[in-house]
Amino acid sequence: MPATRVAVFVGSLRKESFSRKIAQALAELAPEGMTLDFVEIGQLPLYNQDDEPNPPESYRVFRQTVASADAVLFVTPEYNRSVPGALKNAIDVGSRPYGKSAWDGKPGAVVSVSPGAIGAFGANHHLRQSLVFLNVPTMQQPEAYIGNVTQLLDEGGKLTNEGTRTFLAKFMQSFAAWIEAVKKAS
Amino acid sequence: MPATRVAVFVGSLRKESFSRKIAQALAELAPEGMTLDFVEIGQLPLYNQDDEPNPPESYRVFRQTVASADAVLFVTPEYNRSVPGALKNAIDVGSRPYGKSAWDGKPGAVVSVSPGAIGAFGANHHLRQSLVFLNVPTMQQPEAYIGNVTQLLDEGGKLTNEGTRTFLAKFMQSFAAWIEAVKKAS
Amino acid sequence: MPATRVAVFVGSLRKESFSRKIAQALAELAPEGMTLDFVEIGQLPLYNQDDEPNPPESYRVFRQTVASADAVLFVTPEYNRSVPGALKNAIDVGSRPYGKSAWDGKPGAVVSVSPGAIGAFGANHHLRQSLVFLNVPTMQQPEAYIGNVTQLLDEGGKLTNEGTRTFLAKFMQSFAAWIEAVKKAS
Amino acid sequence: MPATRVAVFVGSLRKESFSRKIAQALAELAPEGMTLDFVEIGQLPLYNQDDEPNPPESYRVFRQTVASADAVLFVTPEYNRSVPGALKNAIDVGSRPYGKSAWDGKPGAVVSVSPGAIGAFGANHHLRQSLVFLNVPTMQQPEAYIGNVTQLLDEGGKLTNEGTRTFLAKFMQSFAAWIEAVKKAS
User: Fold this and answer.
1) Nearest Cα residue to B96 out of C117, C76, C126, C80
2) Helix (H) or strand (E) holding A112
3) Can you tell me the distance from the alpha carbon of D105 to that of A69, in angstroms, rounded to the nearest whole number?
4) A124 and which of A112, A179, C110, D9 could share a cystine (Cβ 3.0–4.6 Å)?
5) Alpha carbon A99 to chain centroid distance?
6) Domain of residue A96, residue span
7) How close A135 comes to chain B (CA, Å)?
């Protein structure tokens, strides 16, 4: 059986992003038969519909990468109580041109990450609202709000908190089951 | 094969509710093998956790009705840019006591209805946020925002607009497929 | 100068509600010249527009109480990632009949309260969306998400955490300034 | 008395953007004593905190432009049921570095624009959630959801619909009053 290939989108562009570290932990915790491919978003120019007749090469590559994935996983901080502009831009790029969205029908999941207690709730649910429109059947439970993230990582950025590891492993198992369910339904 | 029994919740309590009329149209348009059971919510006292050791009989009946359904369908107006209090109360009642939510795992769908143009968008998406927590896998597409509803009904309250009929019939077919998919996954 | 009378609405009906305890702490921390009047919501029947020609006496009293207040303060838990049904119902009751909303123009503030870490973010912002429609100019900062509330109270339900006391005192001072600003603008 | 200078942010980058046309109509309808300055956002690189020690020159200019405005006005379409990535990125850029947000305390207003019936409700309210955090006191009423926008403009992109003109003129007068109120309060 071929592996399930999950495209991972990290909402923060900085190198030492906490979201990226959590995403790396998720990759390690993925169940057998699932691989996580990190898809970069920082190189995508701001979406402008006027460019559509002759889109940037980076758009073409990004859309194809999304379209070829079996599922999509978002790991993101909250910027100003919502989705970071860079991640929203990537979502917009992947959704166009009209009628050719690369997201359509891909099973999805959301993990929000924050150094604060609230766990980036605002980003998590704003993103989910977009995923309704994009027809990304998104796993409802478990929800994942990874708060106080600096306390969960060691100096090298490795996830050391055992409770969080167990939770994230379970999250990935649930996601694998969700992907199978959505695939069967199509 | 036994019929799929969908519990329907109408967000407005008034007798001539537009949402109820749309719900009735949905019942008529349901594909073969699916029946819609209207579940009343107006008799439920406001949720108070202190009543939980000895809950009102109406709670017991409501929770059992929800629990025995194969799927859940919400047809609702918007009150003050959100879910009507009566419908939110029903959701709260069904979600308790803690750990025994009657909603858990039921496939769901949302239709929002309004005499205005915006189609009760605010109610639609606030409700969806609750359904994440309640682990109700909710159909993403098609979304259903039924705006300008008074123009879609005849004097007897029957849905006469052909475009809307076609759309709602397709909505119910998609919902039937969604229910099957979620059931298989469990 | 007459005192500023703030009507307080507690989103939970249970007697030992954490939100009520935080509201009581807020009442004690209110700056001079401001009084907090607790307005009960548990006696309000579920809103049904059919009752409007002859509304329940409790509606009349509630609407008048809201209308006579100088400002409104909401202290609420989150139920299922949104506003509790009982509080949303009170909001709906106060907003009707159409064109006679008792909320119109009152300066407002929101405090959300939770035993969990996330601080009832979902209730806080869903409530804010309703307050846009109701034309309640709502204080933006400081936001108040009171998480892990059980750790902030003593056995008698008194707020003992010093950091939270300081924060809430500052919150009430900011609210007093906000009320003055909105009043001057009218 | 010096004019009130309102910085205007258009959420779409395409040249013939409907939002831009509505923003131009708003500029013409602004009451005496108010000028609207269009602030471009398409040149801003995607926000990356790693660039903060040595930020792009465009960031410096943008932040200064925002900081020097008396008020902020957002005119935006909806992309995927939320704020376009380009506009969210501009908001993020203006909000940093931490503790030096250029948005802080500016009175604000939101107009959402769509060729569809729903009037970009999702963008309007997601944006408002960010404005809470940014401490932008945002006008609650009138809300402005400009739907079916193609029917409101002539071939040259001029707003010809009389009802919409009257509404937008009133919107700008209310905004002027709101700006005065917030200024007095500071």
Assistant:
1) C80
2) strand A108-113
3) 44
4) A112
5) 22
6) 4-185
7) 5
Suggest the residue from D112, D141, D171, D179 to mutate for an interface test with chain C (most C CBs closer than 10 A): D141
Closest CA to A9 of A88, A96, A78: A88
> What is the model's pLDDT at position D186?
73
In percent, the amount of chain D with pLDDT more than 70 equals: 99
ipTM: 0.97
Helix segments in D30-139, DSSP class H: 57-68, 85-95, 121-133
Sign of CA dihedral C123, C129, C134, C136: positive
Per-residue pLDDT tens over the stretch C123-139: 999 999 999 999 999 99
Total structural domains within chain D:
1
- Establish, for the pair of chains A and D, how many residue pairs have beta carbons separated by less than 8 Å: 116
- Pick the residue of B80, B121, B129, B151 with the most D CBs within 10 A to test the interface with D by mutation: B121
Q: Which residue of D has its CA nearest to B114?
A: D118
- C138 secondary structure, DSSP code: B
Segment A10-31 mean pLDDT? 98
In chain D, what percentage of residues exceed pLDDT 90? Answer: 96
pLDDT digit string, tens, across residues B15-74: 999 999 999 999 999 999 999 999 999 999 999 999 999 999 999 999 999 999 999 999
Nearest to D106 by CA among D84, D74, D144, D143: D74
Distance from CA of B89 to the nearest CA of C (A): 4
Cβ distance of C184 and D184 shorter than 8 Å:
yes
Torsion-angle region of A119 (φ positive above 0: left; ψ -120 to 50: alpha; else: beta): left
Segment C40-61 mean pLDDT: 97
* Of residues D14, D47, D82, nearest to A48 (C-beta): D14
Phi-psi region at D148: left, alpha or beta (left = phi > 0; alpha = psi -120 to 50): left
Answer whether B112's CB lies under 8 Å from B124's CB.
yes
Choose the closest CB to B181 out of A125, A135, A185. A185
Quick check: C80 and C184 in contact, CB under 8 A? no
Taking CA–CA distances from C42, the nearest residue in chain B reads B46
Give the model confidence (pLDDT) of B159-175 as tens digits: 999 999 999 999 999 99
Residues of A within 8 A of B136 (CB-CB) are: 140
Q: Is a pLDDT exceeding 80 seen at residue B152?
A: yes
**B126 CB within 8 Å of a chain A CB:** no
A-C Cβ pairs (cutoff 8 Å, strict): 27
CA-angle at C14, arms to C179 and C153, nearest 5°: 70
Residue D100 sits in a domain whose CATH number is 3.40.50.360
Per-residue pLDDT, B65: 98
Average pLDDT over residues D110-126: 98
| Rounded Cα distance, D136 and C109, in Å | 15
